[in-house]
Amino acid sequence: NAGVTQTPKFQVLKTGQSMTLQCAQDMNHNSMYWYRQDPGMGLRLIYYSASEGTTDKGEVPNGYNVSRLNKREFSLRLESAAPSQTSVYFCASRTAGTSGLNEQFFGPGTRLTVL
Amino acid sequence: AQSVTQLGSHVSVSEGALVLLRCNYSSSVPPYLFWYVQYPNQGLQLLLKYTSAATLVKGINGFEAEFKKSETSFHLTKPSAHMSDAAEYFCAVSDGYGGSQGNLIFGKGTKLSVKP
Asked: Which of A18, A58, A111, B53 has its CA 20 to 30 A from that of A9?
């Protein structure tokens, strides 16, 4: 099992450019998440998908859109990148269940720099 | 609203010394609590989780944490630090209820340095 994979690993954009971060999981998990990590801020939830066909905003959704393409894949799109979106982006997934006790599994991250 | 506070953004210990990383949470319902570790340039890896089965939770790499409801704490400890423990540690809480059940609220992280 590859677990959670993310592409690309690194990306440099100019202000105003767009790009899509890809995430896939092979653990048959229902829920998927996108976080951003900034120094001293911990991880903050951007968007999540509790199940295939649903997406919801997290704590910091402005400037982002997501697509739950199928059960395996959850992409994050920056339509017009801004320097404030320079960050490390993590995708995570979690198995189904009505309880919050199941842990999330994280991908290796995408390091994005917006100039 | 739930929240997590990690006391100390940086902790430095000597190799072989006790590791203590502090985490306090706020939750209006019984919480589920997690500790994750992040090694440089990697993703997050689960160390351990509290699911109400036992208040003392043992995790990987010799770490353990104790849930104390009266103190709303879930501190992470390891009796003897190893150089390989140098990493950033995150405490997280999930309430397990409602439409966002399973969503995690993370603390800001504590970077652990281990001196030879």
From this structure: A58
